[in-house]
Amino acid sequence: MISRYGIFCKIIETGSFTKTAELLGYSQSAVSQTIKALEQETGTTLINRRKDGTLLTVDGAAYLPYFQQIYQAEEALERKEREMRGLENSVIQIGTFTSVSRNLLPELMREFKKKYPGTRFVLQQGEYTNIAGWVRDGSVDFGFVNAEAVPDMEVSVLYRDEMVAVLPEGHPLAGQKDVSLAELGREPFILLDEGEYSVPERAFAKLQIEPRIEYKVYDDYSILAMIRQGLGVSILYRLVLEGFEDGLELRPIRERLERPVALLWRNWETMPFAARRFASFVKEACVEHGKPL
To answer: pLDDT value at position 185?
Structure first.
């Protein structure tokens, strides 16, 4: 719907009420009524209607540049709204960690870009503590975290990610159907660096077990390479291991360990529109499937 200011500008542009009505798909009487309402609003005659066309009055000429500015601003706003609806030129910044960036995000980003091809993604890889920091300071629009690691922030749990024991091939513990934390704690242990909140460390501490931690490593796949070389055992998330089981023995842990993987944001209402739309898309997909796709 074009505003009365836009209709006024179109009349001046075409020089005719009739041509403006045809151009906009309005009746001529509707165009006339709009200008009449504008003249009532300003308290003056803006256009002289003549048989040979229209002519701005002195007051109309004085108002014209202001009406043109309003109309141009309205057009710019409409273009921006269309852009936002189509998410054109939108950049979505996400804080994430390995299993999410490998198992969850690729397919969801691909599906989202089918609907909104103008969007771009920037992924910042980290652990729960610095991801939460990025969300707080606005470095990312939202992040993925262990919900238990950020009790003071708003989260939405997506799914639960189980941990399993990871052993070298031929390891004595591989002969068991499952292993305990006490058994793993007696082995040379390679700890996954999860920042200030470590699920395995908390589980060991709860049972008053002091594991033989010989390495603390941030990258999951470096840990796998080290285990294949017989440098130790570890506890890792099952989703990280999918497709990387060669040369390894995986066993369930008797004391169940898992993390609730969640979306984290600072303020949903002020989150950029494109990021909010993608975050909702992620939540809907996880609810539908009950887990990563």
So the answer is: 96
